[in-house]
Amino acid sequence: MKALITGITGQDGSYLSELLLKKGYDVYGIVRRGSTINTVRIDKIPLKKENILYGDLADANSIVRLLKTIEPDEIYNIGSMSHVRVSFDIPEYTGQVTGLGVTRILEALRTLDMKKTKYYQASSSEMFGLSKAPQNEKTTMLPISPYGCAKLYGYHMTRTYRYGYNMFACNGILFNHESPRRGETFVTKKIVRAACRIKLGAQDKITLGNLDAKRDWGFSGDYMEAIFKIMHHDEPDDFVVATEEYYSVKEFLRRVFKKLNLDYNGHVITSNQYYRPNEVPELCGDASKIRDVLGWKPKVKFDELIKMMVDDVMKEEEKSLHQDIS
After folding, report:
1. What does pTM read for this prediction?
2. Is 124 an active-site residue?
3. Among residues 147, 153, 223, 264, which one is catalytic?
4. Where in the sequence is the domain holding 272, given as residue range(s)?
């Protein structure tokens, strides 16, 4: 079986590629061409170098070329412009990549008569926007960020091609998911990194935005297993993937600092710079459908996730501090 992963160099792409390799897949990945390519998350994964190919979700010709070359059995589209706050600064680009990128892949599959290729779309809880928690597959979607709007477009296009062309095209509506491999600009990793540095005396303050937003945080590795189950269900369908628990950013902050025997008071500064023009107040998933239909449930609990991230970052920071002293 050949699987193609867009966004393979990201957090989710790395965990998904590991999972598929363990299951015997020949895994291919798409990366964008740049003067430097960040492959740190997949460098230690035994992927074939020749299977990492250049492409771009904003370039239909590159997608067609790759599909004709690889002829994948499955496509996992988890690539996107994925930072919600940044999407307000580059809304058009977000729409081109996160939204229209979905159409480019699906239309390429249709025109190349590759409709037997299974397609997975990484949809997002940000699509729910202002809808009250808990949110499930039947909840009204009211996105209020360019990222959420682009994801909602991709979600509906996936359903459109499923119903219109009888394609195996499915959506996983993933709520927030983190890991030690989370990007440095995301709030969870930013908090963990700062707390570890404060513990080591390398910094004293952390500047954040809205501390009251509530999110349903799970572990990326668990969620990639959910994706695999969604793709191997008898019929293409849409599933919410979530822990069914939610916590405020302030509570995440408190628990990270507590893990390090610290009190966050006195170390935190809030700034309008990190507030979004529109704030989603609460996201908490109702994952009863995927639990009942596919038998999936998360393994890693909230405090385990925090421990995992803190332990990993602390090792990095201690190593860096030792090298500076040497």
Report:
1. 0.95
2. yes
3. 147
4. 183-215+246-282+301-325
